[in-house]
Amino acid sequence: MKLIKTILVAVSVFLVACGGDDTPRGDEGNPSYAATVYFDALYNKDNINIALEHATPRLARIMRSYGTASQFTRNLVNMQFDEVTIEVDMTNASLREQYGDKAKVNLVFTGYLNGDKVDDMRSVQMLRKKGKWYVDKINPDPFAR
Fewest CB atoms within 10 Å of the CB: 27, 31, 124, 135? Predict the structure, then answer.
């Protein structure tokens, strides 16, 4: 009986330890981290309230007018995904953004929509207030029609 309890405890600890933590990783004081958390909340978590915490008041007001994360991303961001992976494009990264209050972050989105693979890219303007980075503006896709 004691052996069964030990095995059960070991298996449950193993299963809990293997639970997927899908939160973005990185330096929380970095503008690219804040941008990734913002879009992760919109696309992977479908939670506009988490995204609002990472947006400036001006952008937050616009987001609230759409009501839901899916409406906002469909209409204003003009990107849709069933599932998506978000990566930071480091080709134009600058160390100066760490010391200033404004930064531009390029993000690469790789995902699927209705079974078709979709690759897209967006650039966002970041703003630092009281030491925390916020998404201020999502730049429109320059190649969109």
Answer: 27
Structure tokens at 57: 């008041």
Tokens representing 88 are 């930071």
CA 81/CA 105 separation, integer angstroms: 20
pTM: 0.78
Distance CA 132, CA 84 (A): 25
Asked if 46 and 70 count as a contact pair (C-beta separation under 8 A), the reply is yes
Contact in structure between 48 and 42 (CB atoms under 8 Å): yes
pLDDT of 140 reads 82
The SS3 call for residue 141 is coil
The separation between the first and the last C-alpha atoms of the chain, rounded to the nearest angstrom, is: 69
Q: Is 35 exposed, middle or buried (0-12, 13-18, 19+ CB in 10 A)?
A: buried
